[in-house]
Amino acid sequence: MKPLDLRKILQESVLEIRGDGKAGGGLVLAFQSLASLALTDPNLHVQEWPFFSSARRGANIRSYIRMSARPVRVACEVTHPSLVLLMDEGAARTADFAMGVPPGGTFVLNSTYSPEVCAKHYRLSGRVVTISGDAIGLKHLKAQIGNVSAYVAMAHAICGFKPETVIDTFLYALKKRRIPETVLQRNREALEASLTEVKEGVFEYAKPGDHALPTFAGYGNLPVGAQTALRLSQDNLTAYYARSGLRLHFADPEDKCNGCGHCITNCPEGIIQWEPHPERGLKVTGSDVTDYCKLCAECISVCPENLFSEVPFVETWQEAEVSS
Amino acid sequence: MSTEINASAPRVTTPSGDWYPEAIDLAAVKAAHIPLYTQRTEITSDGNQAAAVAGLQMWRCLIYAGFPITPSTKWAEFSAATVNGQKGTKKRVKLMEAEHAVADYMAAASAACRDLVFTTATSSVGLDHMYETIKSMGASGLGNAMLINVYRCSANYPLCIEGDPSDTLGQRDCGWIQISCRGKQQIYDTVLQMPCIGMHHDVLTPSMPGFYGIKDSHRNARLVCEPDAAIHEFQDRWIKPCPLPGLINGDTAMGNCVTSRWFQGFKVSQKRRFEKVLDVLPQVGSDFERTFGRPGVSYFELAGWPESGGADLAVVSMGPDFGTFEELREEYAKKHGLKVAGMCIRLLSPFPREAVREQLRHARAVLVVNQAHHHTRGHLTLDVADALCNLSSPPPVISTFCGMGGADVSEATWEAMLDSGRRALEGHTPPPYQIFHEGAVL
């Protein structure tokens, strides 16, 4: 299978790009910077826009770009992108980032895994580009944020951009946001490191029917306030709103819980577990983080004994299996 | 501002009340303006930024009042960041405690300094909160007030949905000039032109340029910014000090209208000034095009009309989704052997019914695409049907809805709507209206 030539698509028709990530993860900045990078070519026309509403941090969001050598008039969402980005593997738990990509399309993933492992796991057919963006972010920006590297990997996938222009365009976007000079320098280091960390390969792991666009079959009889097929999430588990890479942790080895119950009354999802206690009234025993903890951190802030905390959590791919 | 106020300015008594034409030294205000651009410059911008840049480039615009509300927040953020970065500027961004306070502030400031422009941006429930005051302003003669409406539907307070123009079409009788924009360049260009229309001595009516939330407010593209000096020269050709409209001041100012006869006179004056928009707007648009080389404001945009004017199927719509129709129009027309043409409405209020009628007169069928909530066939449908009603044999009007709640209007949806129009051409009687999504009829 021959991968699609993205530069050729750009010149001859419209290159459509889609990205999946989580609110607060830097997806929008990565896409805005890629749009600005394309606009450094005076012959290109670009549209870039995010798809989100009043989304809280951690909610799934999408971003789109159309690039072309002719004016871009189409305004609808991108459904058959030739290039897709998975910015946050947590987003793949509820959205198929590869949906609608034609055979030979390019898949960019912010992942620690190799292109082949990703291609096999997500059942991708085409060119797979990976970069360990979170690790690069942690090293240079002191934060597990992969948008710098994801932007570089997308620019690499499209080809034809000079490395110094790739770096300068991103830094210019940060300057517009009044980012301090020291942070700009760290971003420059992350950008330079990303340029050498991109890995890629061409694979054919998709099976017939994989990543097909769903057919809209109407809403049926909607009850008042019904969730609809327009939602990105296929269910309503609020745990999917939690930031990737972290999970709530409760520990009370010294039996310090005083039974104040603030965590219970402040938890918006009712996930705090407790049992009656003869002296304190109650005793907190843990929290059920399986489905509904969105890491709002209310319990962390109200506990007088500091028994709650956020701890690193590695995404497990068992939750991200693609259904055909 | 205090240095520009002349406390001993002479008073001029007019039938509408007292006027202090020299109270503010406009020359000093203009001289204090710090330009954003001294030459034509290309930038990357989204819709909010495009609207903000245009406002910041006007020397008459000194105060930007606002309250953050998605999706218009970035207008205030960008304005604040820019003003903050301009050392020595006289411009100020004023964040208020709520939208109704912004509207009250705008009303008072606009009335106090009628030669300056006061602008804000809001959306959905923000516009709802301003409703009482903006209704009053609509009749006040304060053409120097400009409210940038970033379209968003209040589905169920506080749940709001982007990209649905229900807010603006629900307010179309508030007495403001409402004009719809699509694309960054059109947003920027329109904001520059609206004070020229609103402050025109025949019009004196506040203006409400608007664009779709998220679909345009957050969509980045290339934007050409003109030099501030050229903008000032253009605006100064149109904006001149002028007396207040009659019946505005004294007993009738913003309140006590004394008798119903006086009140009716007040409203008649408002209505006549409002109708003058239809004369002034094309003149301003033409001057803008001559000056900057891009299309100026207009009643509507046209796509694919045959020289004879007689399209088989004429599509009337508004907003950025019209671009998707433009993209597929030619292929669809060729496939079905039809002449398919489009009209993207820009001037929502006052609705240009005469011009719409002339354009649609020879169409065999008219397909109207609505996106805002309406209790029957849609705001645009009713306006178009009204425009056509005087014709001896008006074309049938097919009413459709799509993109409600900000939903995507895909190519499949456009094709399904066009198919509906095509069936009407074949003699099928369409239902009063149909709702489309993803190519399906709901």
Topology:
The complex is a heterodimer of chains A (324) and B (442).
Chain A: H1 6-12, E1 14-22, H2 27-39, E2 45-51, E3 60-68, E4 83-86, E5 105-110, H3 115-122, E6 125-131, H4 133-141, H5 147-158, H6 163-176, H7 181-195, E7 199-204, E8 246-250, H8 262-266, E9 272-277, E10 281-287, H9 298-302, E11 308-312
Parallel strand pairs in A: 1-4, 4-5, 5-6
Antiparallel strand pairs in A: 1-3, 2-3, 6-7, 8-11, 9-10
Helix pairs in contact in A: 2-5, 2-6, 4-5, 4-7, 5-7, 6-7
Chain B: E1 12-14, E2 17-19, H1 26-31, E3 41-45, H2 47-57, E4 61-66, H3 73-85, E5 92-95, H4 99-112, E6 117-122, H5 124-129, H6 131-138, E7 145-156, E8 159-162, H7 166-170, E9 177-180, H8 184-198, E10 207-212, E11 221-225, H9 228-238, H10 260-292, E12 300-303, E13 313-317, H11 322-336, E14 340-345, E15 347-349, H12 353-360, E16 365-370, H13 379-388, E17 397-401, H14 411-425, E18 434-437, E19 440-441
Parallel strand pairs in B: 4-5, 4-6, 6-7, 7-10, 9-10, 13-14, 13-16, 16-17, 17-18
Antiparallel strand pairs in B: 1-2, 3-11, 7-8, 9-15, 12-14, 18-19
Helix pairs in contact in B: 2-3, 2-8, 4-6, 8-9, 8-10, 12-13
Describe it:
The complex is a heterodimer of chains A (324) and B (442). Chain A has 324 residues and is of the alpha/beta class. Chain A has helices spanning 6-12, 27-39, 115-122, 133-141, 147-158, 163-176, 181-195, 262-266, 298-302, and strands at residues 14-22, 45-51, 60-68, 83-86, 105-110, 125-131, 199-204, 246-250, 272-277, 281-287, 308-312. The model of chain A is unreliable at 224-234 (pLDDT under 50). Chain A has 2 domains: 6-204, Pyruvate-ferredoxin oxidoreductase, PFOR, domain III (Pyruvate-ferredoxin Oxidoreductase, domain 3, 3-Layer(aba) Sandwich); 238-320, 2-Layer Sandwich (Alpha-Beta Plaits), CATH 3.30.70. Chain A has 9 helices and 11 strands. In chain A, 27% of the residues lie in helices and 22% in strands. In chain A, the strands form 3 sheets. Chain A has a 7-stranded mixed β-sheet, sandwiched between helices. In chain A, strands 8-11 form a two-stranded antiparallel sheet. Chain B has 2 domains: 24-292, Rossmann fold (3-Layer(aba) Sandwich), CATH 3.40.50.970; 300-441, Rossmann fold, CATH 3.40.50.920. In chain B, strands 4, 5, 6, 7, 8, 9, 10 and 15 form an 8-stranded mixed β-sheet that branches. Chain B is globular, with a radius of gyration of 22 Å. The N and C termini of chain B lie far apart (57 Å). The A-B interface holds A 32, 35-36, 39, 45-54, 72-77, 79, 178, 216-219, 225, 230 and B 42, 44, 46, 70, 81, 156, 160-162, 182, 214-215, 218-222, 320-324, 326-327, 405-411, 413, 437-440, 442.
